[in-house]
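DM from R.C. (forwarded with permission)

"hey, sorry to bug you on a friday — could you get me a structure for this? deadline for the figure draft is monday and I only need the backbone to look sensible"
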Amino acid sequence: MIRAVLLVPERAAGWRPEGVLPLLNPAENGAHAALSAAGVPLEVMSEATFRSSAVQSGWDLVVLACPTVDSCRAAESALESTSGEVAGSAEDLDGGLPSRSLGR
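My reply, with the result:
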């Protein structure tokens, strides 16, 4: 079975006086829905949690729906340190790619 994770930035979410702030933005929600519809079980995790050494290993697919260069490099580093293969690189972000999937 594929172990996949969707990385999201730290952000306020939940009930607020002005309404509900969603955990996922539209691009992240779309990535989650598409992979779930394809039968890929997907965990959602903050980028900060992912960077901790305890959870970096064992992923077959790391999805970054709205990556920053820093978050992309962190995911690349985590996968490379566990013999993962990286499709593309952080430099691809200069071309305006809307999403990234990194796998091993």
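R.C.: lifesaver. The longest strand covers residues 4-8.
me: no worries. The chain has four helices and six strands.
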